[in-house]
Amino acid sequence: MSTRIISFFSDLRPGLTERLYRYPGQQGRPPLSGAHTNEAPLYYLLTTFAPVDEILYLRTRQVREDKVDCGREGSLTAEEYLQKRVARFCQDRGLPQPQMTPLDYDPANPDMEQALRALLTGIQPRDRIYLDVTGGPRNVSFLMLLLTRALSYKNCSVEQVVYSSIVNGQNAVVELANVPQLFDIINGLHEFTSFGSADTLVRVLAQDPAPQVRDLIRDLQAFTEAIRLCRADLDLLEQMLANLNRDLDRCGALQDSHPLLSALLPVFRQELGFGDRKLTITGLVRWCAQNRMIQQAMTIYNEHLAHAMTQGETPYLLVSPEARELLSREPFYARSQREITDSDCFQSFSYHLVGELERWALSNGNAPFPKLAGAERRQALQRALSQPETRVALMVEAAADPVEGQAVPPALPCLPADSQALVHLLRALFQSPGQRRTREGSLSYLAQQDQLDLALPVLQKDWKKDSQMADVLERLADPGHNGDRLRRILLTPLSAAPYRQVVLDLLDRRKLRLRPGASVAVFVRLALDNQYVNLMRNQINHALGDSSNRGKMHALNRLGYHANLGRLTTQELASFFLESVGRLEHLGREVKAASGAPLPQPPESPSPQVTEDLLRQLQEKANAKML
Question: Is pLDDT at 296 greater than 70 in this prediction?
Fold first, then answer.
């Protein structure tokens, strides 16, 4: 670990005269003497932070070659003059002589990348760096800014920044005492929001006397540990996020004593993906996915999804005592001899749902969530344009089109074929805060008036040519954009009805109910998402040795999921989590919109003949619309 000064040597001008420079902020010390503008800052750094091992300096051709009459010193270049003066100063003060290392620089044709490379080559990790920013044109100032950022990536600390100037009519060495710390705060906030690491912020703010900042640092450290260790204790995570919410609010009020930190905390929240809202478990999963922390997202969501479905603020799955009693008799839970929770009931339901839907799909020769790929895509898109449900889905999707630079919103849930349910969905979507409104306002109004038959012509008018719509769909269907999202928009409206009764029958057999307003289709996707997360976690932990896990992988593949970890990318898994979290939030909005409605009674088991007739009718309807 070495101590180095980095400076830009200014030109030497004729008629040099010695000037006295005050020490920065220090009274009672004799002033520094210097004729060249770089002298006093160099002398200050050499005496205050001794011993200095090296002075790295940028020099122009003029500094290297142009000689000036320096009186008794003779005719010297600026480089020769400063080298002699520094050597004499160190000798007179009994200081060790630093190594003087020149680096050529052409301000007229600056090669920033080459200059940075040359500066960084001789600097080692954990070196202490002091900057003299007195000399040089404006592009050198930007070079110093870039250098400061690059040094942080090399794990070097910029301890001090100084320059010579005139202050209140007197020559002085000016010390920018907090500039390195401000850089570190900015870097630390970026490091935390990108990687969940509080290491830099802890190092920079550990000695801050403000109790609000100390609390923030303590809780950021706890957050870092929870993320790094993939902790899944929901109570612990909830408390951790509550503490961080409190700390961010308190530190945001420190405009006078900590103006930069206070100003950046709203950006900090925005970078975490929460905007002005509070940090939540769902938001935490989204943030982990956006930053490709897949293992962390998987661990947290694996615990959170079942809890949110059954025990959250508004449970979406209503679990009866009979359901818990029924589950306790199953061999796995009977052997465990532990108390059955509502989350257990959801986990068991989602496990059995995979088998039910797989059997349904195999018996009907079609998967509930079919895939679009290759040359079939264009034909499928064109055929889908003739479906009214698809047109409405596309219109709603246009209303929710993401703003450039923001995360892609989740795909629309399965759209039911009957008009009233579709009207309800449109109403819920268009009443959601934050939706953009253009021509969709007309569709929203018609939907709210239960006049869906008038809404479709509005939609027809908005899209002038089928070819235009097909081009939009083709762009969205590109795997590099978000093929899964479009696949659900196009195909789930056409296949939602046939398996709906399968789901309702399974809920009835297991003594479970959905809360009013909760879409069966969205609930099904979340239940399958739950099994998908369990499977992915098992694969990452190399726990696929038993036949049940292998069978689940094959079943989920048949149901439209990509369940082979060896062929998945982090981008695909991140997209899955973002879409699943979006589905969970959408289900919450649906239930909230329907709050106040009486709870439905458990459905009566239909007679075998009714069930068979209903399934046959639904299948005939689906076959007429199927791609």
Answer: yes
